[in-house]
Structures are given as C-alpha cells and as structure tokens.
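Researcher: We're teaching a course module on how sequence relates to structure. For the next exercise, students receive a sequence and then see the predicted structure as tokens, so they can try to spot secondary structure elements on their own. Here is the exercise chain.
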Amino acid sequence: MKSSLLSRFTGTVTIVALAAAACADVIPATVVLKVGDAVGPSTVSTLSTPFTDGNGRVGFAGSLADSQRFIWWDTGPVFFSDDALPDVLTGHESSMGVSNTGGFVYSPSVNGNDAVYTHFGVLLQKGDPIPPLPGLYSTFNSRPAMLPDGTAYWIGGSTPTQGSSSSTNRHLFKATDPSDPGSITRVLGGGDVIAGKTIKTSASNFDFWISDNGLHHIHVLDMDVTANEHVYLDGVFVAQEGEPTGQGDNWSSFDIVGVNNAGNYIFTGDTDGATTTDEFVAYNGAIVVREGDMLDGYTLLSGYALRAASINNLDLVAHMWGSSTDEHLFLGYGPELADSVHLIKTGDEIDVDGDGLGDFQLTDFQASTAIGPGLSLAEDGWVYIETKMIPVGGGTEVEAIVGLYIPGLAPLGDLNCDGLVNAFDIDPFVLALTNPPAYAAAYPACDYMLADINGDGLVNAFDIDPFVVLLTSGR
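Model: And here is the predicted structure for the students to work with:
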C-alpha cells in the first residue's frame, strides 16, 4: 500500500483505485466553466486560477467579452464588475479568495487605482490612508487571499506621499472584517526584525499562505543578508538560502509555500545542486520529491519546473510538474510524497458527460508560480485546475476550469460529496445502503464506498451504527 493516509478514507477504494484511474486513457472530470460559455450578460473570454473555500467549493475570477470582470463561486457568478458602478472596476490579478458563505476578495483597479476589493466593496486602494500605518498611503494591493471565515489577506505597498506609485515599504495586511477598512492590521513587512535579520523594504515578499483556521502563516521573505531568501513559519525561519538541505546540497531559492490547520507545511524551489535534480518539494523542512525522481512510473525529467503545489488539512499534497508542453499532476501524502499517484497529464482525454468516452483532450495546464500556488486542494475529493483543452475529434482550443474527483480523498460518511459529514448525508446514506444503482445515478460524482463506515469492504446494515456515531461526533 503506497499511502497510509489515503487508504484510511474509503476502505477498499484506495490508492490502487487512484492509480488505475490515472492510467486510463479517459479520465472522468467536470468542466466548471470554459471560454465561450454564457455568464450573466455576456460570454467568458478569459479565466484565472481556481481557489477553494473551506468546504471545497471552487472560486475564481474571469473576464467577459463585454469587458466586465466576474467572480465565480461554487455553481455560478456572485459578482460582476458593473455591480460596482459608478466606480469603474477594470482588470484583475489571478490570485483571489472565497469564503464558506460566498464572500470574496480580489485585486482589480478601481477608477484607475490598484485596489483590493471584496463583496462589500473597496477595502483599500492606491492613495487611501492605511489605517494601521498613520501618515502612510497605499501604493498597490496584490496577491489577495481569503480564509473560510471571510478574513482577507493581501500584500500592499506604502508611501508617505499620497498618490505616489513608488513604494517605500511593503507589508502583509489582514482584514478580519472585509466590510470595514478599520479592521485592517499589519501582519509583517519591511523593517521587521526576525532572528536578528531585517525584512527588506524593497523586496517583493509576495509568496505566502495562511492555514484555513488562521493559526499558521508561512511566507518567503527577503532579508537584509547576502543569502537573503528565507522561509518563515509562525515567527521562525525553517529554511534559508545557502544553508544545507540535508541531501548534500544547499537551499538556493524558494517559490511556492503552503501550510495546513495542523501546522504541517510545504515549500518548493531550487537547490544549488546539479540542474538535473535541483527542483524540489519539501514537507516540514525536508525534501521529499525532487527533479529526476520517478513518481508512479513517470520521471520528473531534467528541465521540468514545479508549476503548482498545495497541501490540505488531510496532509495530502497536490503537485504539478512539467514543461510548457508536457505537464503532470500528482497527489500524495506529505511524508510519503515519493509514493505520489499520477492523476492526469497533458494529452489525456477527459470524459465530462459520464459516457466513458473522451470529450476533450488537455493541451496545457495554466498554473504558474508567478501568481501563487496554482492549486488550492481542499478535502472534499475534488481538485480543480485551470487548463486548455481541445474537443476530441477536432475543434478550437479553449481555456477551462476543470474539476477532477479523486476516489479516496473525501471523508467516510460524506455521501453527498460536499466535504462534510452531517444530516445532509442521511438520505444518500440510506439510498447507498438500500439501492446502490439509484445512489450511483443520483450522485454520479460521489463514491459509494464512503458508506462502508466500519471498513469491512461491504456496505450493509453493519455500517448503520458507526454512521450514526460519525453524525453525532461532530466530525
């Protein structure tokens, strides 16, 4: 058995099922939205990186053919830029965030001013006084993120000259109430001293992640020392440029970071070792996968870049490797990431209508470390990717947000696949128990074996009592 964690969730539907699905020529998937689809008053022209809320529901920003921007959450749009009129909102960054109630944060320009904007309106824009920094004004706002409870985070610049675009410092900001700029606080920024080293005021310091529960913070920081890149976690440095990795080389640079509710963390980057093996993924400070390794029969070839990575609260890590024309998505348990399962690659076909036949062929994964983690892995059994694809049999290549359901990822008892075990799972549990074909028809993306609560490989009356325990335990 490759992964002790993956095998916990569905009994007989384990890593073996994952590997079998990954080797198939046609992979079940769902297209959330694609370029050309009708949304509101227009059609989609571009899409951006997907993120998830605490329940696994997907959110992302996009643009329409009529030049409006929109925010998507779960099953449809929740905001159009024209909703802000008379304020004129243009453009947006790919980074954004959504809450469990459909709240959002993203970074457009508001009347020409670089801003961070939420479902309540402008939170902060260029030229505004910065509430926690008296005498300083906002110069830019970037890389927004949102926790499940609606708390917003972003990177912003400051200057003593109102209206100036030149930053004299950069900060990580937090707003516990996105409706109230007065709730904005400064988390850290240039000039702060950590372990006797000072954060550079001129550095980007853009790569960060906050755990869903808000208790853990990981960040790539540029410090005022020669080997300046450091990985910061909850107040301390866990890795720094030029220091030994423990594998015969030294840390050289850092890219993607992530941390979960338990404080387990990942970071990616390069070492100063051979260029054929220098790219890596580290879990809790130790390299677990690196360029040149073979994962589930696929070699991470020299020249592959680590294009995206995310850790969820089950300690599972999704990580994407490849070149511009050859890309692969893997999933593994953090400490055992070398045993990762291959989920999908460019060139694979996806079946989006459930007939077992390929409908689209994936041609490109759009994830980029330049705009953040590129992935946002939740715990509900789904992973979402931004991709380009072409209809099987010929046609025009289109950009799309695609969801892949991963058997074995959702928790036992989650029979309606919403990432939770609660009263809404009672009816589908009874249906799975009494009429499996009807359950499969009613919940085609869900996993029947999630009803095998006692783990004996069968779904029967012996699962009823443990299911009740799950419901009443508050899991």
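Model: If you want an answer key for the exercise: Confidence is low (pLDDT under 50) at residues 1-24. The CA atoms of residues 326 and 346 lie 6 Å apart.
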